[in-house]
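*** Query protein ***
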Amino acid sequence: MRTASSEADVLHEPGHSRGLFDVFGRRYLLSLIVRKEVQIRYRGSVLGWMWSYVKPLVQFVVFYVAIGYFLGMNQRVEFFPIYLLAGITIITFFNEAFSNGTRSLVDNAALIKKIYLPREMFPVSSMFIAAVNAVPQILVVIVIALFFGWTPSVLSIAAILLSLLIIAVLATGLGLLFGAINVTFRDAQSFVEIITMCAVWASPVMYQWEMVAEKVPGFLFTLYRLNPLTAAVELFHFGLWMPLNPSDGQTIPNLWAFAGIGLAVSLVILFIGQAVFRRLEGRFAQDL
């Protein structure tokens, strides 16, 4: 007959993790990491959080004058600065979460080698940090859109939230995948820089989707629409820009269907990223 003390002495495999389930099971630790990184970002800064609002406002002025006025995009695309700023805001969220997630394990090598905690914590926290940094930019876009006559609706709010969800899932999955690879092969970080550079042009941020539809065959345009970034950017445009421009602004046909596909693709990438991460996790302490 086993006693209570003997049951307490049962040994468990050290370092055993349930992956992302353990990360969200340790929400307090996750919040501490996010809070620390956000505070470090503005440490020693006079303006502090105000920089998060100054940057998108300056971007708006630059876009309006340089691209909108001098290059004539204000005449081609109504409310073009809002269109452009909305697209850049959502892509910046993706690029920051993906890039920081890729570097997160290497940047926290000392902590990983000293104590055990779910290593997925670092790419996930990178996504939340990027989300916190994106909030002021999103608020600036919303305020500017309200100034120009934007009226929020249930559908527009749903589009904005779904866009953010797609980016969060996609960036986390890619952060897990490339973050794990980057521990052994530091070339992954340079490869990610190329991906983030191309992300701006792989989705309708600087241009409208009609330009792609006019220039490429139908099957290539379908592949373009299957890109989760395309769906996320167009959802953001639908939420903030389309109500301002009902005459000229047209969303990609079947936007919601392709948004669902984009979310499904992002979830598949998250599953693959988690699987590769778990496969390579045993070598992290050694390779770091």
In short: The CA atoms of residues 109 and 198 lie 29 Å apart. The chain has one domain: 19-287. DSSP finds 15 helices and no strands in the chain.
